[in-house]
Design goal:
By secondary structure, the chain is mainly alpha-helical. The chain has seven helices and three strands; from the N terminus they run E-E-E-H-H-H-H-H-H-H. Helices cover about 70% and strands about 10% of the residues.
């Protein structure tokens, strides 16, 4: 290590001088290890020769190598690791925000689609209001009217279950329970539609066992209907 100032001097006219001071210590460092101070200026002592300039360059290179060897590689490694962790955390936060935004958009689109289907279902019943009224009054229907009536009931059932399943996937259990209750009331108010729905469910359960989600939906609807029947009989 160079513990003194290294000067490139000459006794002639103005010339560049190079001063490397190793006696300087930085108070900001924990251990207080020395760091070099490099001063480049002009001194009115003449022009340095090529040999003197070469010596100055060698001294600078030597001092730089000495200073670089004093760096704490562990601290540099910790700094790099910290920066990498910060970058990872920032990317995860960004991805989380994107996922939350995508989820909000998906929920909004699903709610809008549900409202549109509900309107179409009601319009279909309105368009065939006579068939719907006669069917729920147990009046005889023509074959083509039976087809229309059954399709109206099935459309309502499919829409109810799909909305129920969507809300469960989003962990909106309370909203899913509300959908089940609304469909149960719909069947309770339309006795013939209830019969058609029960027939379809029994046929599907016998020949094509439904998935767990559909079986849970069916059981919840039937439980609600039982409660409504009990309440009406009191």
């Amino acid at each position: 290590m160079l513990e003194h100032s290294a000067h490139c001097r000459h006794s002639r006219r103005n010339r560049p001088i190079l001063l490397i001071d190793r006696a300087w210590r930085s108070p900001s460092r924990e251990i207080g290890s020395s760091q070099p101070s490099l001063y480049i200026g002009y001194e009115p002592c003449g022009v340095a020769s090529d040999e003197e300039l070469a010596v100055c360059v060698d001294l600078v290179a030597l001092q730089w190598r000495s200073w670089r060897s004093d760096l704490n590689l562990t601290n540099w490694r910790e700094l790099v690791e910290l920066l990498a962790i910060v970058a990872i955390v920032a990317s995860l936060v960004f991805v989380g925000m994107e996922l939350r935004q995508s989820r909000a958009i998906s929920i909004s689109e699903g709610n809008l689609a549900n409202a549109e289907i509900q309107i179409e279902r009601n319009n279909a019943i309105n368009d065939h209001s006579i068939i719907w009224t006669r069917g729920n009054s147990s009046e005889p229907l023509a074959d083509n009217e039976v087809v229309i009536f059954h399709n109206l009931v099935r459309n309502a059932a499919i829409h109810g279950f799909m909305e129920y399943a969507r809300l469960h996937q989003l962990d909106f259990d309370e909203a899913a329970v509300s959908v089940t209750a609304q469909f149960s009331v719909f069947l309770f108010q339309n006795p013939r539609a209830r019969e058609v729905w029960n027939q379809d469910e029994e046929y599907m359960a016998k020949h094509f066992p439904p998935p767990v989600s559909h079986a849970r939906w069916r059981d919840d609807v039937r439980q609600n209907l039982t409660k409504l029947d009990q309440g009406a009989s009191q």
